[in-house]
Amino acid sequence: RAIAMLVRHALETPEKRVALVSPDRELAVRVAAQLRRWDILVDDSAGRPLLQTPPATLLLSLADLIADDFGPVSLLAALKHPLVMPGEARLDWLENVRKLDLKLRGPRIGIGLSAIYDAILAQTKEGPERDELRDWWSGVASRLVSLSDGAATKLQSRLEMLASIATELSGGAMWKGEAGRQLARALETLNEQDLSSLDDVDD
Fold it and tell me: What mean pLDDT comes out for the span 26-31?
């Protein structure tokens, strides 16, 4: 906070420029966050960590779905991700996600994809609206069903499955740009390693 205050004070001089040089990334991030509270945007020359970029957060949100057995919070976070369903179809997509959000509020009803379907039927009156939301969810579930398949016990297989679903949901947009290319290279590097020690094993 003290560093941020010094930077803010220095910037009060017209045309003054300030640079913070530090090998401590955590310190730099905290100073930048403090400056944002004062509407001072910092150009971080070190860039953002890969795991904080949109392509990586999409991949991680899909991994959360597996860990959370399709809990409402993790599900909605994945469906609302900015890279999901880009283009003209996104507005309709978000409207259906909003409707689904309303149906999933309150106590959680069961786990897994089927529980989401049951919640739609249980909390929506019969009629065109329920049919539309049910049909939309059926299409979404068909894209996510492989995430609920416990047969994939190898980490490499799961990574490939996550990448495939993320590609479909984003229309390939997640691999575009520098962040997308870096993530693709990171996954390629992982696939070249022996990950068998991290696979699921029977107790």
Answer: 85
According to the model, what pLDDT value does residue 203 have?
A: 41
Mean predicted lDDT score pLDDT of the chain? 86
Query: In this predicted structure, what is the pLDDT of residue 64?
Result: 93
3-state secondary structure the chain: CHHHHHHHHHHCCCCCCCCCCCCCHHHHHHHHHHHHCCCCCCCCCCCCCHHHCHHHHHHHHHHHHHHCCCCHHHHHHHHCCCCCCCCCCHHHHHHHHHHHHHHHCCCCCCCCHHHHHHHHHHHCCCCHHHHHHHHHHHHHHHHHHHHHCCCCCCHHHHHHHHHHHHHHHHCCHHHCHHHHHHHHHHHHHHHCCCCHHHCCCCC
**Cβ contacts of 158 within 8 Å, gap of 6 or more:** 66, 152
Q: In this model, does residue 151 exceed pLDDT 70?
A: no
Contact 166, 59 (CB under 8 A): yes
pTM above 0.85, yes or no: no
